[in-house]
Amino acid sequence: MSQQDTVLYDAQGPKARRRTAIGTAVAVLLLIGLAVVVVLRLAEQNQFSMELWGPLINPGNESFELVWGVIGEGIVNTIKAALIAMTLSVVIGTLIAVARLSLGRFARIPLIGLVEVLRGLPVVVLVYLCVRALPDVGVDLSDWPGGQVFWGLIIGLTAYNMVIFAEVVRAGSRPCRAGSGRRRSRPVSPTGRPCASSCYRRRSASCCRRSSASSWSC
């Protein structure tokens, strides 16, 4: 697609394209320079030594198997938590959406408040509260399979995503408002004025005719 066909912004002229190219080149050079400075500073502090990276990349290191065992366990637990949270979010979110559509105006106020509060909180804050704050209020999940952190992560993800899914289901279930559907266009005259309603209904040869652009005009 050419620059003249875009609908997101006006096509740039020769001077604007030249300024954009120069600005892009300068930004790339600055980023490369910053990356070089960071690497040099880390190298001066021996941050790339095998003593630090050996347990991760050297199979002969005595801690190699232990480190990758912990990483593998974390990946598996993350996948498990994601699957459980997605399932619970779909089920609970659907129930919330159905309840909001079924209950009366005042009965659904608590659900609206719940949705607005949970939707406005960052998911990281919800996960932190579920992992750290639940034991302080007497909700101890350490005896469950996976422990407190595992189920705190699931509860936090579920609390955030269920309200998002509930809003999606509720919005998709509401009928279109009157007049929001696709309307049938009325024929117009060469001056741009719409034809009379009787002409629009009859579309007779004596009242309307086809224009060269295949549209009805009076």
In words, what does this structure look like?
With 218 residues, the chain is an all-alpha fold. The chain is 61% helix and 2% strand. It contains seven helices and two strands, in the order αααααααββ. The chain has helices spanning 14-44, 50-57, 64-102, 109-120, 123-133, 147-173, 197-202, and strands at 209-210, 216-217. A two-stranded antiparallel ribbon has the order 1-2. β1 and β2 form a beta hairpin. α2 (50-57) packs across α3 and α5 (123-133) packs across α6 (147-173). The longest helix has 39 residues, at 64-102. The radius of gyration is 31 Å and the shape is flat. Residues 200-218 have low confidence and may be disordered.
Short description:
With 218 residues, the chain is mostly helical. It has helices at residues 14-44, 50-57, 64-102, 109-120, 123-133, 147-173, 197-202, and strands at 209-210, 216-217.
Lateral arrangement of strands in the main beta sheet: 1-2
Order of helices and strands: HHHHHHHEE
- The oligomeric state is single chain
**Average predicted confidence as pLDDT:** 80
How much helicity do the residues have? Answer: 55-70%
**Separation of the first and last Cα atoms:** 37 Å
Structural class: mainly alpha
**Total number of β-strand segments?**
2
Low-confidence sequence ranges: 200-218
Report the major sheet.
2 strands, antiparallel
Rg value: 31 Å
